Fold this protein.
Amino acid sequence: MSHSLLLRRIFSYLNRFFMVPMFRLGLGPFLGSPFSGYIMVLKTIGKKTGKVRYAPVNYAILNGHVYCLAGFGHVAHWYRNLRAQPHVEVIMPGGTIMGVAEEVTDPDEAMRATLRMLRSAGFAGFFAGFNPLTASDEVVREKLAGLPVIRIRPTGVGSGPSDGGGWLWILVWGLFIAVISWRGRGRSRMDG
């Protein structure tokens, strides 16, 4: 198995079973740090299936737009979904926005966004094959040539984890049940 395929599988499992559920539970703000990187979840429509798909990606905010990089290139499923249906919902740590995704064609804009993303990507930035904190612009251009940079132009506000369809209620009710159980066990010990 190639190194790239192995990385894609690892990230696929991590994203599907950890990152997406955590964001849907409203815990996105607790996941971002300089080490883990700053992550958002793209909510796209499957190109072939028409089903909702979730893809956690690193991001940067510049000039009122949200940028992300298709780190695995044109084969990334979320990238192909965005090309087919550019209207997207973005679950960010602080809230959810609706937007229209478009590929950046200006090399200077793409470079500014890429540098910002890589430098805030935490450990994931090092998977590009260089140190994103110290690499020159030339090294970044060379190593990431051909990888699509996506600009998401916000068009509205989306629903969040506490709104209808969100998952925050699971966390709230789980904590409620845990507290009731804990208090009940404490009382039965006092009675016995």
Q: What stands out?
A: The chain has a mean pLDDT of 86. Residues 3-161 form a domain with the Pnp Oxidase; Chain A fold (CATH 2.30.110.10).
